[in-house]
Structure formats: C-alpha cells, structure tokens
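Re: the request from the purification team.
They wanted to know what the chain is likely to look like in 3D before they choose a buffer screen. I agreed to run a prediction and write the result into the notebook, where they can find it.
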Amino acid sequence: RQRRRRRLAVCTDESRALVEQQPEPEPGPRLERRTMSALLSLSRVAWATLRRLKKVPAACHRDMGGMAGPQPTFGLLVDIDGVLVRGKTPIPAAREAFKKIVTPKGEFLVPVVFVTNSGNCVRQAKADQLTGVLGVKISQDQVMMSHSPLRMFKRYHDKCVLVSGQGPVVDIAKSIGFTRIITIEMLREAFPLLDMMDHDRRPELVPSVPIKLPNIEAIVLLCEPVHWETHLQLIIDVLLTGGNPERNPQQLLSSHIPVVACNTDLMWVAEGKSPRFGHGIFVLCLEEIYKKITGKELKYELVLGKPSELTYHYAECLIRAQAAGRGWQKPIHTLYAIGDNLMTDIYGANLYNRYLEEESSAKASLVQAKVAAGKQTATLSQDEDLNVLTSELMQGSATSCKSVLVCTGVYNPCKDDMQGHKELITGPVFHGHRDFMFDADLSDPDYIVPNIDAAVDLIYKLEKYVPN
C-alpha cells in the first residue's frame, strides 16, 4: 500500500514553511496482535463511556460556550511538556496559539484534549495548571493523564493493588476507580525490614504489633517515584512472593501477578538544556532487575500512555464527547496530535493512524460481505466480533490521525541532524519501549513546525478552517 505524505520542512529560527510531497516507504510489519487485541477489547467499554459522557449537563454547555464559529470536523490532541511548558516555565508560543483556539469569552472553537504522559496528579490539578499557563479556563474533562484509560478497565477496580509513583497516589488511584489501595509507604511500614538500602531510613525498632495487609493482586506503576531504590526493592519483593512479602520466596514462581505500566517515556524536557529521566527509565530498571534475578521477562498486563493505541482511542472518545457537549452535529474525521517526542507523540499518533486505516478497510469489507449476503448491518448481535461492533456503533469516528512535531521540547532540529535522527529510531539507541514492535516509518512525522502556534496555523490551513 502506497500513500502520499505531506511534510513541513523547518530549518532555521525564521522557519520557512515549505510543504513538499514525498512518497511513503512500504509499510512495515503488522502491529503486534496482543496490543491490537487489547485495543479491540477496549472498544465496547469506550463506546459505553462515550454515551455516558455525551450526557453533558447544562452547566457544562455553558462552560464550553455556544456556537462561536463554524463547526469543525477535526480535533486537537495536545501534548503538554515540551509543547506548552518546559518544567514550570510556559513556552511563549502556547498563549499565542490558544488565542486562535479560544474566543475572548473563553469558548473553544475546536475540540481539544491535552494528552500527557504525566501521572503524578489528578486531572483537575493538571487542568488548574494549564489554566494558569494558557490564561484560558481548562476543564478536567479536557485533560487526559497517562493513567486515565484505567477508568474503563473495571475488572481491576476491585482488586487489591500496589500503587507506585509520587504525588497524591491514593487520590489518583481512587479517581480512576480503584477501591483497595496499598502504597509503597504502607508496604514499607508493614514490612520495615525490607527497605535496607538507605542506612538513614533503616528502622531502629521493629513494630511490636505486625501490620496485616491483604494479599496484593496487581501492581500499578503510575509514574516515576522519588526513592527509586525503595520502590524497586519492594515491587520485586511483591512479584517474587505472589503479592505477599510476608511469604518466604523459596522457589521462583512460574508467573507473577499482573503489572500495569501507565507511562514508558524514556525522557522528557524541563528547564535544563538536556532531557531528564522519565518513568521509562524506572520501568527499564525494574525489568532488568527482575530478569537478572529470575532469568525471565517481566510481563505487563497493560502498557498505557503514549505511544499506546489505547491512549489515543480513549482520547478520541473524549474529543467526540466534547464535540457532542457543544451540540456540534458534524462528525470528527481527523485528529491532529501535536507533540515534541518522536518515540511517544509521533510514533503513537502514526500507530493509531494505522489502526484507523485497518479499521476503515475492515469495515468496508464487512459492508460488502453483508450486502452480498443480504443481511442488515443495523441488527448486530452482542456476541459479534468487537472489531465489527466498534466499526458500526461508533459512526462518524475519526478516520485519520496526523502527527505534528514541534521543535520546543525533546526534538531539536539543531541537535538532531539526519544521521542522529536515523540512529535514534533505527540504531542501537532505540528509545521506545521493548513491548512496542518497532517500525521506523511510524517515527516519521507528517509535519514539522517550530512551535504550537505554527502548528495551529498549519492545521487551520489544511482544514480550510476560518473561525468567525
């Protein structure tokens, strides 16, 4: 299959915007079936969530504003770190961009979801931060954290989970549906002799009355913690003992309890000149320690956050719910994912675009088959394939997801010359997670622009969208 891809070349600070046509290479290997299966399993739940989100109360309609311009048929998925801010410092182009997205009355002209791999706070806290950065009222319904899709995986919500991360981890876990929560600090308090790395934190006395904790049934890795050595040690203890560190791990278990990783970003950018360690580094340490001890690979039940298709699927549901809340009747056909990281933002957007193309092709084949068989497509059984169910129920869903790379974060055109870029995505310094089957074509952005302000200009031009 051959496609034509538009590319925006940016060379200097003046950033000439030249759109040139170039043929796309032959597509790489098919997506990993386990990931695709998880995505299709999510679809039915995502649809139910969308129907629930569509029932927006009148107050939300007032918050989002009325008809302030022509109805858009596209939505924006906007990364935060490296696109809107660097650490706590706002990127100047961000406010300029949102003057074009939001009216002076605070009404959004197009549906926008802020998709971040951050996981150290609840959505409302991130919405409040964005409100201060952009000078525009942002609702928590417009914010998607790396852990947000876990709200739809209800089969985990009643399990006793060990949660790793920083910030208000209990509040975060509750906000996504978990009811039986154990933190690393709670585990450390119950088993004080397990955390021995830091001599200054070693307990002087063992509690006279042991603290009894329930058996841990799953582990959720929200984001990078503060005391890595403590988290790594206790998580390994839980894995090796089947969820009960009080047990003596006399022999290695054939399998371990489920593990969910909410973000595998290797690096991210703050105010410093070079990128900082992300949660992906912590996850990498955990994987290597487990393999060194057991000789086996650490297996994940779910890997969320960009570049996972699950993340983009959930973001699309939020985009469509937002459009429905505004009373817009036209379906959202195109998603534009704006980010600064080739191996998360760009790879994930292109991966989801491939999924949408496969879905569109499968739906067309199904319609032809049913027409030939004389069947009614409107009468679907609940037991039919999830792929079929999603294609026919979610009418008007996006048909493409375009990737837009900005130069204000991890990607720097001055440092990442062509040779460096090639090594980053194909050579021995591959920065993606091991569970995402690598395809070099997917790390190639559809467009490159200097910043988010230029991204908005480009998108409006491509969509021929002129706000009133």
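For the purification team: Residues 1-50, 52-66, 374-396 have pLDDT under 50 and may be disordered.
Please add any questions underneath this entry.
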